[in-house]
Specification:
Distance between the termini: 56 Å
Strand content: 15-25%
Largest sheet: 8 strands, mixed
Number of domains: 2
Strand order of the largest sheet: 1-5-6-11-10-9-7-8
Structural class: alpha+beta
Mean pLDDT: 91
Length: 455
């Protein structure tokens, strides 16, 4: 009988110890930056009720939700003869009431509504957890991936957007990934739709122009036509989405374009405020006002932000924006929020591709003590305990194996130092320390050993 080779679902991955050390390096940098700006951590369940998730991400987002079949005999209340391909949409809600979360923002809005009497507003939270999307796996795009979210809810102030850009800039500067931070405003997009007499087609317009960079101008025109926009309206929108100029010129152009759109002028006022503040900051990365930036999610109502790496073909590594009415869907109206999310997996891929991880991340263990026998084992236990009390990760090889085997273990785990403590060292109170990278070997005292490992 043949044994089936084990596998994992497409778009998911296992992570080795080295990969986990590097991923935790990213998470730690992001987490510390979030905390530096006063944000607090929360977690939400991997699965949510579909009633919480559906209708929040637009038509395409709903298609990418992973649905979970109800427990037990989920077909018991449905007649077998009634199951057809034509009525699958009607049957789906009856056999599946839950789904894996698509992002962290909608569950966060649900959390705020449920716990509104327990939290302090404005509520500044961060969340680092996996999300799932039934997307086609490709480079930089996975079906299971980690998001690192930071949000402020319960404040209308545009100062929050300024801080989000600062957080973004600081994180990518620390990770040494050069990025461009793109900003826009959904009110500006509505103003464009209003100015071409197609306000009711806002969602269709944003979904089409959001693909401009991926599919090109002609394909965007075709999609706008397919979505019901007349040629006259398309002709009016092309000069806007193809405008390639300075920030000041873009603002001047839109000031004239929005002569009949109050909403558009409001969006322009908000984006001008943000730009003015950002110009006064010493940012490590450049920012730009991108009129074409749409962010496909329907819940955004104001500022929208996207983070693009400059030295990688991988797409966006972060994005977010203002959502004025998301909690209203769950029964808590008039509570504004704004946030941004970073894709840890794409960040990892870029850092790996560009060799940006520090060498010290090769191993979590700083030193391995060689096992020469029972007496040496008893002697080394106290030394190990003292090192660990000083927060120095240390190991003792558990068996009195050949020295070559123990050294190979240290090499395979990328442990930088090996300690050899035999009878001579025990008598003299010294430790023979070997640098595994240089091959240098010398006798040191225990205090000297600690100083080397703490560097």
């Amino acid at each position: 009988m043949s044994v089936q080779k084990p596998s994992i679902p497409k778009g998911t991955r296992d992570f080795s110890p080295l990969e986990m050390v590097r991923r935790n390096y990213i998470f730690d940098k992001i987490r510390k930056t979030f905390q530096l700006f006063g944000f607090q951590p929360i977690e939400t369940p991997a699965m949510e009720n579909l009633s919480t998730l559906l209708g929040k991400y637009g038509e395409e987002g709903d298609k990418l939700l992973f649905r979970i079949l109800n427990s037990g005999d989920f077909l018991s209340e449905i007649k077998q003869s009634g199951i057809t391909t034509e009525n699958s949409k009607d049957i789906a809600p009856l056999i599946s009431e839950k789904g894996l979360r698509y992002d962290l923002t909608v569950p966060f809005a649900r959390f705020v509504v449920q716990h509104q009497n327990e939290i302090t507003f404005p509520f500044k939270r961060y969340q680092i957890q996996p999300v799932w999307r039934a997307d086609r796996p490709q480079k930089g795009r996975y079906r299971e991936f980690f998001q690192c979210d930071v949000d402020v809810i319960g404040s209308d102030s545009l100062y929050n957007e300024v801080e989000l850009v600062q957080i973004t800039d600081q994180i990518f500067a620390q990770l040494q990934i050069p990025v461009k931070i793109l900003i826009n405003n959904r009110k500006i997009l509505y103003g464009i739709a209003e100015s071409i007499d197609a306000a009711e087609k806002l969602s269709d317009i944003t979904m089409a122009i959001d693909k401009l960079e991926k599919i090109g101008l002609e394909k965007v025109k075709e999609e706008l036509q397919q979505r019901g926009l007349p040629d006259k309206a398309i002709d009016k929108i092309i000069p806007v989405i193809t405008l390639d100029s300075t920030i000041c010129d873009k603002i001047d152009f839109l000031n004239a374009y929005f002569i009949h759109s109050e909403t558009g002028r409001k969006g322009l006022e908000e984006i001008s405020y943000l730009i003015e503040y950002l110009k006064g900051l010493e940012l490590h990365n450049k920012f730009d006002f991108d009129i074409r930036l749409a962010r496909g999610l329907n819940y955004y109502t104001g500022t929208i932000i996207e983070v693009k790496p400059l030295e990688s073909s991988i797409g966006s590594v972060g994005g977010g924006g203002r959502y004025d009415d998301l909690t209203g869907i769950f029964g808590l109206p008039n509570v504004s929020g704004v946030g941004i999310s970073f894709g840890a997996d794409r960040i990892y891929d870029i850092m790996n591709e560009c060799g940006l991880f520090p060498e010290v991340l090769q191993s979590t263990t700083k030193i391995l003590f060689i096992n020469f026998g029972t007496e040496e084992e008893k002697y080394c236990i106290s030394l190990l305990s003292t090192l660990r009390a000083s927060a120095i990760p240390a190991e003792f090889y558990p068996e009195n194996a050949k020295l070559k085997k123990q050294m190979e273990y240290a090499n395979r785990k990328n442990i930088p130092f090996v300690a050899l403590v035999g009878k001579d060292e025990m008598e003299s109170g010294s430790i023979t320390l070997k640098d595994m990278k240089s091959g240098e070997q010398k006798a040191v005292s225990f205090e000297e050993l600690k100083n080397v490992l703490l560097l």
